[in-house]
Amino acid sequence: MAQFQKGLKNILQKHPNDVVFLSALRTAITRSFKGGLRNAYPEQMLATVLRATLTQNPNVPPSAIQDVAVGTVLSELGGSKAARMALNHVGYPSSTSLYTVNRACASSLQAITTIADSIAVGRIDVGIGAGMESMTRNYGSKAVPTQLWPELKESGVKDARDCIMPMGITSENVAERYGISRADQDAFGAASHIHASKAQKDGLFDKEIVPVSVTNPPGKGDGDGSPTPQPSETVKVSKDDGIRHNASTESMAKLKPVFKEAGTTTAGNSSQISDGAAASLMMRRSTANSLGLSSSIKGKFAGATVVGVAPDEMGIGPAYAIPALLSSLEINKEDVGVWEINEAFASQALYCVRRLGLDKALQEGRINPRGGAIALGHPLGATGGRMVSTILSEMGRGGLGDVGVVSMCVGTGMGMAGLIVRE
Fold it and tell me: Quick check: helix, strand or coil at residue 308?
């Protein structure tokens, strides 16, 4: 225990080589196919948050930003060309390099981590970890390969075959194997919407969201036989639009299972497919000090860990990634004030909470206090970045403390967790 107390003390101290956040911005997260960003391109959303990063950090010259990592899962050609074009389009010089990262649901947390690692080892001084995803445009195959080596589909190794198991079936597996009831899942789902609704009405998301200007094509009219076409219009999208403001456990209980006839996973206790983007500006603390930006530091990135789990119950990943992270940093779960655990499904999120012994934290409103992916949505490549922007603004509010953990399960069977310290 004394050793772990030393670990916490070390994490809370300020060191010249700390990797710190200067900003963590995101777009609104909106419903795919029906939401406000349905007509936006992933690289358009990325361009918006990259431009806003420069605007909100006027004392950081664009030429000082050396490398940008962008998490994306579904974009054409891995998103690398479009993302690079977006970077240059909004004012970054050609000397700023860029690459994309795909670790499924953890892609943008991985992007943040790789930039942080590059800063930590001295490869760069300043970088951006970002993420983008338009599931409206790119979710046609349901994130399953359309051209796959046939031998893998018939592999004698179950874990290999299970990597393309529908995510909803993995949710059902977790619920069945670990006794997560339908009633508990519905209550968890309703709570996500209730928390998110309150946070939105209280304006708690406003500072982290950058509006996106979207041009919607002409409408088809009123459908009465002699439609009057509506002209195209440009709107600014600045609100998460997947939140059910009237959600309740009772309303959730009326929804039918989606993946198995007698299952417990429904549209109400699962994450939404969504569109969005996020970007975090990071640098070495000594660099921030030399640029006169000490007072602008929002927090620091203390580390991240990835673990593997069985693909057919991929949702349990955080239950293993979080202990590995805390152990590596020599701190206890009691040292963590607020948790962002991605709600891919209520079944897996609840399992992780229970296995980690975080039931009290859940009751106290310290897990996803502003709601999670069930209410806000899960734009695969941008989710980690969204969670980082939210936790940075949430930590310290209402006595939640200055240490936070971001974690998510990862398709094909992984879990990732990162630790953030508020300045």
Answer: strand
**In 56-122, where do the E strands start and end?**
67-71, 97-101
Q: Strands (DSSP E) along 5-95, which ranges?
A: 19-26, 30-31, 67-71
Q: Which residues are catalytic?
A: 105, 378, 409
CA-to-CA dists, residue 2 to 7, 270, 332, 401, angstroms: 9, 40, 11, 21
What sign has the CA pseudo-torsion 348, 351, 352, 358? positive
Residue tagged 């970077």 (tokens): 87
Contact between residue 189 and residue 268 where contact means Cβ atoms under 8 Å apart: yes
Q: Report which of 82, 110, 113 is spatially closest to residue 98, judged by C-alpha positions.
A: 82
2: confidence class by pLDDT, cuts 50, 70, 90: very low
Q: Which two tokens stand for residue 283?
A: 């640098």
Over pLDDT 70: what percentage of the chain? 96
Sign of the C-alpha dihedral computed for residues 183, 187, 188 and 190 taken in this order:
positive
**What six digits make up the tokens of 196?**
């998110």
Nearest to residue 309, comparing CAs of 410, 423, 417?
410
Answer for the pair 269, 252: CB distance below 8 angstroms, yes or no. yes
What would the two tokens of residue 147 be?
A: 């051209």
List, as own/partner pairs, every contact residues 202-208 make where C-beta atoms lie below 8 angstroms and the sequence separation is at least 24, other chains included.
204/370, 204/393, 204/394, 205/239, 205/240, 205/370, 205/390, 207/393, 208/24, 208/25, 208/26, 208/389, 208/390, 208/392, 208/393
Closest CA to 296 of 16, 21, 65: 21
Q: Name the region of 104 (left: φ>0; alpha: ψ -120 to 50; beta: rest).
A: left
In the predicted model, what is the mean pLDDT of residues 77-86? 97
pTM flag (> 0.90): yes
- Beta strand residue intervals within 61-177, DSSP E: 67-71, 97-101, 126-134
Q: How many CB atoms lie within 10 A of CB 201?
A: 10
d(Cα 181, Cα 351) in Å, to the nearest integer? 11
Q: Cα–Cα distance between 140 and 143 in angstroms, integer?
A: 8
Each residue of 31-79: pLDDT tens digit? 999 999 999 999 999 999 999 999 999 999 999 999 999 999 999 999 9
Q: Which residues contact 258 (CB under 8 A, 6 or more apart)?
A: 168, 265, 266, 267, 270
Q: Output the six-digit token pair for 369.
A: 């206090």
237-295 per-position pLDDT tens digit = 999 999 999 999 999 999 999 999 999 999 999 999 999 999 999 999 999 999 999 99
